[in-house]
Amino acid sequence: MKKSEKNPIFTLIVFVFSFWLLLHWIHPKHQKISDHETISMKELLAAAIDIAEEGGRELVRIKKSGRLKTSEKTGKNDLVTAGDHASHDIMYYGLKGAFPGLAVISEEEDAPQNPSGSVFLPKLTNKKLERILVSDELLPIEDLTIWIDPLDATKEYTEGLTEYVTTMVGFAVDGEAVGGVVHFPFTGETVWGWKEHGNNILDQSENAPRNSVLVSRSHTGQAEEQSKKHLGSNAKIIKAGGAGYKAISIFHGRGEGYFHSGKIKKWDICAIEGIIKSTCYGKFTNLKGKTIDYRS
Question: Which chain regions cross the lipid bilayer (predicted)?
Fold first, then answer.
């Protein structure tokens, strides 16, 4: 066969390979995650850890500067500070920048629209996370709702009780809390979990004082009275600030339970319910036993 003659078998192989390669890149199943029709939960969790920690660093910086610019929302126990707004900018716009089209709901949605103009883009990988999570899931973006609290325990933040302060990111799929991140800016601890996949919790709950329950120090309501009604007059009542702090305190062994009486917002509980579910310990319900719907 002359060198100039073409090999029909070779030509057919090249054609088939080229056709497969074209289909491989244009088929929807092979579109990049950055197209955001689907989202990698592992990437979302890594990003949430990064933005919660970055928001926390901003809270520490503003607290040290002394320029809190505190004002009341609805009363002296419901405050907002420059820290709330600055952390919101980092966390809200960071997630929206990394995952356009993602439904993100923040406690500070009424804050000025990103006055700094800059966006912190979180990392989509986390080495510590990779060592624990061995699997991933790609979920349709429309199934996800993210609830963020840029500064939980604002009142305590203004009073210098910084051990109670957290930043939180909660994940809901079809309205169910399935994961979350709680970061403690002033101690550097970050707790995260994802239902049926894993968490980084060091459980010390067996060390909790017997018959003890954590309640809010500023929104006590009937929590103390109801706790003693159900647990007995000898129940140990521990008053503390911040939903994130009180919930994670159960794992830290500070109390056996957390009881809240009165209204509470979904950005206060989505992250911690997701973390609780990652441990198979239970779930949050209202006083009628109904589960919480986190769609909106």
Answer: 7-26
CATH code, 34-198: 3.30.540.10
Reference 37, options 122, 165, 110, 144; nearest CA is 144
If 0-12 CB within 10 Å is exposed, 13-18 middle and 19+ buried, where does residue 258 land?
A: buried
Q: pLDDT tens across 241-258, in order?
A: 999 999 999 999 999 988
- Alpha-carbon dihedral sign for residues 245, 246, 247, 248: positive
How far apart, in Å, are the Cα atoms of 19 and each of 8, 16, 77, 107, 224?
A: 16, 5, 65, 50, 70
Q: Which token pair is 38? A: 């689907």
Question: Does residue 166 carry a pLDDT above 60?
Answer: yes
Strand partners, 239: 215
Is 268 annotated for ligand binding?
yes
- Cβ partners under 8 Å of residue 136, min gap 6: 40, 41, 42
Mean pLDDT of the chain: 84
Question: Where in the chain are the domains?
Answer: 34-198, 205-278
Amino acid at 82: A
192, 49 Cβ separation under 8 angstroms = yes
Could you tell me the pLDDT band of residue 17, with boundaries at 50, 70 and 90? Answer: very low
Token pair for 81: 């500070």
The answer to whether the annotation marks 149 as part of a ligand binding site is yes
Whole-angstrom Cα distance, residue 98 to residue 121? 6
151 is in an annotated binding site: yes
Closest CA to 84 of 65, 64, 105, 58: 58
Region of residue 147 (left: phi > 0; alpha: psi -120 to 50; beta: else):
beta
What is the CATH topology of the domain spanning 205-278?
D-Maltodextrin-Binding Protein; domain 2 (3.40.190)
Q: How many CB atoms lie within 10 A of CB 133?
A: 19
**81 vs 72: CA distance, rounded Å:** 9
Partners of 221 in beta bridges: none
pTM reported for the whole predicted model: 0.84
